[in-house]
Write a structure and sequence with these properties.
about 450 residues, 15 helices
Length: about 450
């Protein structure tokens, strides 16, 4: 399958994934309630923060070096396994340190079951990200797509089982234990595909000093970009929980999560475009990136009215306790919309070794957020958090697009306005007819 075919498959898979995710979100809200959902989101957010910190950007470097063949797969695998073992011990030590500072409110409860759940989710997430990056870098996209789908399907099944068995609200710890089991099953799935598709076993043949220096140089920038981007998206959760408690976090996080569904299409494109950016020549990469941005923008624009109307159903679908999420959703969408481009462009920058542009854009968004959250959230509550988030997203989006236009000497109109022939091809594809053989207008100048 071609890389464009892989994008189409991934988009289809992610759309299916989105439907399941939406159903899961409804069931989780119903099963846990606003307070339980807040506890769940808080622990998951802290776990993902640990993943961002202790991945050290390795997953990006693994994908980059695998896709560009700048290092042997055997060395990548051996080094990644050794790194994973070392990082796991560092995660455990950090959780022990966390336990000494309950006033930070990084966990719902500071008890041994929560520490253990936090460690296991972090460990399996780290392992899965390393495996996924390696498989994507070697163009085994279908395996990663299948396993990403499996996460949502298994989560849906777990929710349905809880829904059928529970007579009242489910304990958050019980649900989190199911999440740990799902992550473990996905790790087993990655091991299966790894042994079938790659089959290089770790043998101690790790990178030498020169290779480690190059690897860490790339990883460090990727690490900073990823960490800053994560904090830009999730730092407000900690502020909301600290000032207003887990119930308000449950409402706030639902609005944020639903608004981020708008990124499904660009994320699907970015997953495939990142490793392919290292293969494509600059002219072809620019043409294809512009086209993908146009299609993502057009599709999102079409779906936007549906999303705004659908938000009114939140009290019906999720429960009356989540009604306050409606205005928050609308505020979040103001900032989410410009970032459909940045999601795609960040993959291009990373795949071509231009991570510094991602770093500056992420740093700008983080700077805006870290300034606005302490001012707006204590004063204006959940609405203040949503406003601060939207402003920070816009800042990141503006800089990302600006850097891309300058680097590839292209115009912003080429990223926005879909070509008539592209609409024709899209309609034909939906009708399952042979697409037009015409080239896009880009290739005619």
């Amino acid at each position: 399958m071609t890389w464009k075919g892989s994008i189409s498959l991934n988009v289809a898979a992610q759309l299916f994934n989105t439907v399941i995710s939406f159903i899961v979100a409804i069931l989780v809200a119903r099963l846990l309630g606003v307070d339980g959902r807040g506890h769940y989101v808080l622990l998951i957010t802290t776990a993902m923060f640990l993943v961002q910190v202790f991945s050290l950007g390795f997953e990006t470097s693994i994908g980059y070096y695998a896709s560009t063949a700048k290092m042997t797969v055997r060395k990548l695998v051996s080094t990644a396994v050794l790194a994973l073992l070392i990082l796991a011990s560092m995660v455990a030590l950090t959780i022990v340190i966390f336990s000494l500072f309950p006033s930070l409110k990084l966990l719902p409860y500071y008890t041994i079951p929560y520490y253990l759940i936090l460690f296991l989710i972090t460990f399996f997430s780290l392992a899965n990200s390393f495996f996924a990056s390696l498989l994507n870098g070697l163009k085994h996209f279908n395996a990663v797509i299948l396993l990403n789908l499996s996460i949502q399907v298994l989560t849906l099944l777990a929710c349905l089982l809880f829904f059928l068995a529970a007579k009242d609200l489910v304990e958050t710890t019980s649900f989190l234990q199911a999440v740990v089991a799902i992550h473990a099953l996905i790790s087993i799935g990655y091991l299966y595909f790894y042994t079938k598709r790659i089959a290089f076993m770790p043998d101690g043949n790790v990178m030498n000093k020169a290779e480690l220096k190059a690897f860490f140089s790339y990883s460090f920038i990727a690490f900073l970009c990823s960490l800053l981007h994560f904090l830009n998206l999730r730092m407000d959760f900690w502020f909301i929980n600290y000032y207003y408690g887990s119930a308000n976090l449950g409402v706030y996080s639902l609005a944020a999560s639903l608004s981020q569904l708008i990124w499904i299409l660009p994320q699907s494109i970015a997953i495939i475009l990142f490793p392919m950016s290292g293969y494509l020549k600059e002219k072809e990469l620019k043409l294809e990136t512009n086209k993908l941005c146009r299609m993502a923008f057009f599709t999102t624009l079409v779906l936007l009215p549906v999303a705004f109307a659908g938000a009114l159903l939140i009290p019906i679908l999720f429960g009356k306790d989540f009604s306050e999420a409606i205005p928050l959703f609308y505020i979040f969408m103001v900032g989410m919309f410009p970032n459909i481009f940045v999601t795609i462009l960040a993959a291009v920058f990373a795949g071509t070794g231009n991570l510094r542009y991602n770093l500056v854009a992420s740093l700008a968004g983080f700077g805006v957020a870290i300034f606005l959250y302490p001012v707006l959230i204590p004063t204006y509550g959940l609405v203040g958090g949503a406003i601060g988030s939207s402003i920070s997203y816009v800042a990141t989006g503006f800089l990302g697009v600006y850097f891309y236009l300058k680097l590839y000497n292209t115009g912003w109109k080429e990223m926005l306005f879909v070509k008539p022939v592209e609409l024709k091809d899209l309609i034909l594809a939906l009708k399952k007819r042979k697409p037009s053989d015409k080239l896009s207008n880009d290739k005619h100048g």
